[in-house]
Structures
1.
Amino acid sequence: MKRLTTLTLIIPLLFCTSWGFFAHRRINQLAIFTLPPPMIGFYKLGHNYLVEHAVDPDKRRYIDTLEAPRHYLDVENYETDIDSIPQSYNEALAKYGLKKLNENGIVPWQIQRTYFRLITAFKTHDSLKILKYSAELGHYVGDAHVPLHTTNNHNGQLTNQVGIHAFWESRLPELFSGEYDLVVGQAHYIENPLKKAWEIVKHAHGLLDTVLDFEAKLNQRFRSDQKYAFSIKGNIITKQYSIAYSRAYQEAMNGMVEKQMRHAILTIGSFWYSAWIDAGQPVLKNLIQMPLDDEEKKATTLMEKKYHQGKIIGREN
Ligand SMILES: [Zn+2]
């Protein structure tokens, strides 16, 4: 066996990118197939864009200090009872102030905001913006389905479970989503997008105890050398939750990750569909493609550059 030198890097693959890039892309991709005939042709043409840009909001965290809180809501930092948090942004702003909102997360309001941007894009027949805001809405709705995006214990750091975030939302779908049934049926109209966003967050928050407790119990059953697996590529060793441990976690939670992925796919398709209805059902053929203006081009180039340099501004998940 090759001897490892002191230069060998050990990289724990336990960091988070919110649902993981893999799952975000898969969720956006599958949401296309929930759409009705007047929409599906356009979305199929935009397939590559919707998949590739499913993770733009995560990349934007590398250039924009205001981006990180758009992906989560630390419920306990607002109230002990989630129902006491005002659902409307203006009421929440009046109650908590902007600083507190920006520190503790705004995902339900970000979903609402992105939804309105998508309606405007439909109304102006701007094909690129329709794809952009569809991709981003998919991202935020996806994030709101992740229980660890609804808590200040977002990476298990308060319960000695560091790494659980990426374990739940990246490792499990990467290993097992091939076994999931992700055919979810047809998109439906959402009467009240903000109310829907809150329902998603509340449901995800309700799953949190199971997510944490089951991993803690499993941790007692597995020795450390059974819990983690190492792989070596060149001079790089990666540390990862073992397949046996991942399988046991997945089974203990009785399909939770699959159910959350299924619900995210159907809900994203339904948000896209509802925005199109609210925009007056524009015909999605022969749309204009407005070129990016200089400012948008510059922002995109900078985002990719900073992302590849790899330093998130603000917290990771
Ligand atoms: Zn995210």
2.
Amino acid sequence: MPAILITGTDTGVGKTFITYSLALALKERGVKVGCFKPVETYVRDVPEDGRLLASATGQPIEEVVPVSFSLPLAPYPAEIEEEKSFSLEELREHFFLLRERYEVLLVEGAGGIAVPLKENYTYADLAKDWGLPIIIVGRAGLGTLNHTYLTWHYARSMSLKILGIVLNGFTGEDVSERTNPRIVYEMTGFQPVCIKRHGGLSLSEEERSSLLALVGF
Ligand SMILES: Nc1ncnc2c1ncn2[C@@H]1O[C@H](COP(=O)(O)OP(=O)(O)OP(=O)(O)O)[C@@H](O)[C@H]1O
Ligand SMILES: [Mg+2]
């Protein structure tokens, strides 16, 4: 399982948080793990996702995030608006370099799976071209059945290998949180890994083990 795409049902669902947590858990197991966020947008000063991921693995931030844009846009429109182009070929070379360097490489998408990196080129295309199996991160509460099903369905239609589904941010306050895991299982065949909304960045031991199991550890 050398490289995996952590994608999501939307922006802000917890991809970075889950990638960071998984990276730390793998590191604790003695695995040489790297993170890669090919493009980060809405970067003011330093890429924040890159900074958090780099703090887990000890990589330089520029290695984790080689391309960044300042506008809060998907990569493709950001490239148009900022008139600053990036090369998919260079990203792919960087990816191969990192894949060689680490035992496990966690690649974080931007937003959801159909977000465009280029004209007619989404993160699903990237996963296919780079041979990445995916983990889908979705919200725990109301609205997640539709988003999770659509993401799962689209990934399957692209013949992507799905390792699992993570429902993130259980609060115990939303009535749909009680039924969502079971319905996601019925709709997709994946028993989702459920992650609570935490005060800080630490997961429980059980949550860590469930995430590790998704990637075969
Ligand atoms: N289970 C959780 N417990 C506590 N905080 C969380 C949890 N999941 C996510 N967060 C917080 O919610 C915010 C959004 O999560 P995150 O940045 O991981 O989303 P994302 O899917 O990576 O977004 P983007 O599309 O911008 O990359 C962050 O501040 C993160 O620390
Ligand atoms: Mg993120």
